[in-house]
Amino acid sequence: MRVPSAPARRTVLAGALVVALLTAAAPASADARPDRHPTGSLVLIGGALKESNTQVYGEIIERAGGPRARIGVITAASVPESQDPHAGDPALCSNSACNGAYYADLFKRHGAADAQWIPLDTDHVANADSDAVVAQVESMTGFFFGGGDQYRYVTTLLRGDRHKDSKVLAAIRAKLARGAVVSGSSAGAQIASGPDMVTGGESYEGLRDGSAPGYFDDPTRLGYLPRGGFGFLRSGLVDTHTGAYGREGRALRLASDTGHDRVYALEENTALIVDRPGSASEHMTVLGPNGVAVLDLRDARAHDSANGWSLRRARYSYLTDGDRYDARTWTARVHPGKQPLVPAATTPVPANTDVFHSAADPDGTPYSFRTTARALASTRAQNSATATTFETGPRFTVTFTKARGFAAFTGDGTGARTLIALRIDIAPQ
């Protein structure tokens, strides 16, 4: 059985279509907006979904009808067979067709009645307007978008510089509005975004250089697509693989640059479940072993100076399994099985000189942003702590502060699990 490859850091998609779709920002087309009264749900995973994650696979299947679930698998973010040198080897292949077969088999092993690959990729763009493929979509009760490069979903399922829905995407959107579940992992979660969907970049370079509309060969350059993705989730930006690649910095910079006041930053192997997306009653639940960060920029203020870019008064909440979030009221509801944390540690928060886990640092510590936040929550020795970027020129300092409204919760009474409204400030040195 093949194991899916790690998420691609960058794939160049050249051509006139790229230029056309990366023009100045404009409102998304009307047909890309959610139904006024949606009844379906989203299950968005931060990437690296393990085969053994029965919690998340089971949730998707249950929402698709349980033992009657029929899952349509879409893997157009993968390279097509024609570009995979290992296409003929089931043990090594990593293309749209073999990835589709992999996920279809997984869903059936987890209890779906049926799961089928929807034959779409950059070699079969015309299939997105095929009546036969639309009929296949109509026979499904749920959908799963696989990982890879989210821009391939744009070029496969959206049409023209106004991002008009293809027939297949229109059918999926209508199914979602009527109650279907739409799920996705990594690029398959990113593509649910509305305007200003991230296309790539690293935290340090994003903080240093800012963001720009586009899709860039340089994997460190912070880029975004002004017209966004499919627009299934519009109450905030979406980022994925957050802890694994330290993406909190790039998420905060992109949100600030583009005028968004909220980001849902998804961790790997963990899902953000969104019920009634796009409606006034949109609400969310976290499911899985890690968590989802909600970055709140309503009171944040950014400033550019000769020394570099800074951001003050952002808020960071880290929600874990069973926690809920009301998008309309900006309110987290911590799972009743967790208790308020009473800080017991008296030691200072350990110094951290690689807050975003830089790829340039061979000794970098994964999840260092989250680790610093939790260590601060667990100590009574201090009310603030700092961590810095590995890179210099400038070096950025992130300050974590237990300000008014902050709360921490534990599941076992010993350490911080869920964090609510920790203040975040970023400044250059």
Automatic annotation (TrEMBL):
Pfam families: Peptidase_S51. The keyword Nucleotidyltransferase does not apply. InterPro entries: Class_I_gatase-like (IPR029062), Peptidase_S51 (IPR005320), TAT_signal (IPR006311). One of its GO terms (biological process) is proteolysis. It comes from Streptomyces filamentosus (Streptomyces roseosporus). The lineage of its organism: Bacteria, Bacillati, Actinomycetota, Actinomycetes, Kitasatosporales. This is Cyanophycinase. Residues 1-30 form the signal peptide. Belongs to the peptidase S51 family. Keywords: Hydrolase, Protease, Serine protease, Signal. GO terms for molecular function: serine-type peptidase activity. It comes from the Bacteria. The keyword Lyase does not apply.
